DNA sequence: TTGTACGCGTTATCAT
DNA sequence: ATGATAACGCGTACAA
């Protein structure tokens, strides 16, 4: 292995000068800089990351904890986060929380045990407040759905705004009884409640009321749950003319469940979702959805986190990703 | 930060003894071991990964390079690989190659630049042979589709076996003119050729011949391509009674394309794919597919790689993942 | 069974 | 502008 002192000897300078050249620091004359550059190229030298990390007290790694990596939304997010982090010289280690509280706690603990410089956490169920205080002090940015405990930065999705917009679209397309397929939520500020709020606001604005029987509660936000919800709704004779599902994944399940009972979308009922997965464009029927700007989200999350890692203070903030509503077959006649 | 010497002082022993306890090495009396354990707990000591890596000359990181992380198949794979690697004390850094040769080359180079201990590469287009020789010597295990250059381990999918089995199923369900939707391939040993071979074997065994017009070539293996392929087939009047698409993702596109033209699955034609994505169960119609054992694949890939990392020699090998054929609506009447 | 001294490759500090 | 030296925290070799 070629070390800095090898390069230094080769170039006839000190290791410190080599270090200064490698890290693009000022205070090195152009001639020396050039000489060192050549020595580096000739010797095939590469910086030893571990040594630098040891010296600097950092690991150069940030963690990204998402509920499930095999959901395209999070896969795409992970890819974007990785790219942005690399731009800043950091590696990203991705973890799954399994969408369970224990998984989220484990991710936080792992961020200590594995010595991450910071953690990007996309929580689902966790009431972070308590755990964070206990688990401690690694820089943390909360991503997506849940509200962040105070003192932490939060890159939020346009939960209520996006939902309001897409619900409004359903109403414009003639729906009057829009069912809401959502998970069970605890407190009043999580992703589910926020989307619920957007839904209600759109109805209110149209002078409609949200009938309680139109609220369909499900467990996990997956396709199986969406399918069952559709089954329950139809079997109990619910006369909804549209379904808004809190995620596209759930919406796929709903459409599937409707198909199981011979209900056609959009001929018989309309359906819309949230996330704009790649699949949404190809599903039969293709799915109308709220499309948050993923790349924007990834970029801002990474940069907020790295600012914290660098110890740049400032009060913690909350920013909301921009979004579009993409209309497809599931809300319009063919 | 609490270091080993802090713990040593607290426990009244030497740092070496602490190191031995931390790493579960023998040669420490039970009483001392217990005393050290307590000191660790009290002080909140945690090993410094960078220091250990510096000392041991390794980074404790392995890379996983996949074509696209937002395809559920690779997301699921990444999750499994991460889990198995962690069991062995390694971190996984995931990268996207974008399913392009340059991306694959970049991943190999990055595995040097970023000092990974090894790389798990799931190549698509790359003719690895040449690049690997140039890029050099990091332990590498090839995953999935393409055949590995000699000298490297390869965890392969049951490409021809799985395809043969599912094609046989299509024939058993009454199909006689099975269209094959596949990408363009170069040489004779890549994933596409292997799946093609399995397809042909099944037809041969049934005494059928693979009519050339039944071969539908596409570009990238995505939904858009599948959809176009279906359009082209129908618009040119192809009288296929079944489609086998080389991946589930492509199959989704095919079904979508058939739906665009009012062709019903499975009533008018049968469709089957390969990968058994989670979505496949919920698509309308649900998709019959070859289901390779992902967890098995991840485990064996990680363990082969780590064996190389540890310098355990042995000749390079090639192992094939087990699989099932999962039959769903797309190949049977409702 | 336990302790001591030194080195891993890099960078901060202080000199020159 | 450049160089010498001492850390960073851990593990190895060897001594006790």
Q: What's the structural blueprint in terms of helices and strands?
A:
The structure is a homodimer of 334-residue chains.
Chain A: H1 4-11, H2 15-22, H3 30-43, H4 49-56, E1 61-66, H5 72-87, E2 91-96, H6 101-113, E3 118-121, H7 128-135, E4 140-144, E5 153-156, H8 159-172, E6 178-183, H9 191-205, E7 215-218, H10 223-235, E8 242-245, H11 248-260, E9 270-274, E10 288-292, H12 294-309, E11 318-320, E12 323-326
Parallel strand pairs in A: 1-2, 1-3, 3-4, 4-5, 5-11, 6-7, 6-8, 8-9, 9-10
Antiparallel strand pairs in A: 10-12
Chain A binds a DNA duplex (16 and 16 nucleotides) through α2 and α4.
Relevant terms:
44% helix, 334 residues, six-stranded mixed beta sheet, elongated, alpha/beta, homodimer, 12 helices, 12 strands
Q: Can I get a quick summary?
A:
2 copies of one chain form a homodimer. Chain A has helices spanning 4-11, 15-22, 30-43, 49-56, 72-87, 101-113, 128-135, 159-172, 191-205, 223-235, 248-260, 294-309, and strands at 61-66, 91-96, 118-121, 140-144, 153-156, 178-183, 215-218, 242-245, 270-274, 288-292, 318-320, 323-326.
């Amino acid at each position: 292995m070629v070390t800095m002192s090898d390069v230094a000897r080769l170039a006839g300078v000190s290791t410190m000068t080599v270090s200064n050249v490698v890290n693009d620091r000022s205070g090195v004359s152009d001639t020396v800089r050039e000489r060192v550059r050549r020595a580096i190229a000739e010797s095939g030298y590469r910086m030893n990351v571990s040594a630098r990390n040891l010296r600097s007290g950092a690991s150069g790694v940030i963690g990204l904890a998402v509920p499930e990596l095999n959901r395209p939304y999070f896969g795409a997010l992970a890819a974007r986060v990785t790219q942005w982090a690399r731009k800043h010289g950091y590696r990203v280690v991705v973890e799954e929380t399994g969408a369970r509280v224990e998984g989220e706690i484990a991710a936080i603990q792992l961020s200590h045990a594995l010595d991450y410089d910071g953690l990007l956490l996309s929580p689902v169920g966790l009431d972070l407040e308590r755990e964070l205080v206990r688990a401690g002090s690694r820089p943390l940015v909360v991503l997506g759905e849940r509200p962040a405990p105070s003192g932490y930065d939060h890159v939020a999705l346009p939960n209520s705004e996006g939902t309001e917009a897409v619900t409004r679209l359903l109403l414009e397309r003639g729906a009057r009884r829009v069912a809401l397929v959502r998970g069970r939520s605890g407190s009043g500020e999580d992703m589910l409640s926020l989307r619920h709020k957007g839904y209600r606001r759109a109805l209110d604005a149209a002078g409609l009321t949200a009938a309680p029987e139109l609220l369909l509660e499900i467990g996990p936000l997956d396709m199986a749950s969406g399918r069952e919800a559709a089954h329950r709704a139809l079997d109990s004779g619910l006369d909804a003319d549209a379904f808004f599902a809190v995620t596209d994944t759930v919406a796929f399940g709903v459409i599937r469940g409707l198909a199981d009972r011979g209900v056609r979308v959009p001929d018989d009922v309309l359906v819309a979702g949230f996330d704009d997965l790649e699949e949404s464009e190809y599903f039969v029927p293709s799915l109308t959805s709220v499309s948050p700007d993923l790349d924007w989200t990834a970029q801002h999350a990474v940069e907020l986190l790295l600012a914290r890692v660098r110890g740049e203070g400032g009060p913690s903030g909350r920013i909301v990703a921009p979004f579009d509503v993409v209309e497809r077959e599931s809300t319009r006649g063919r």
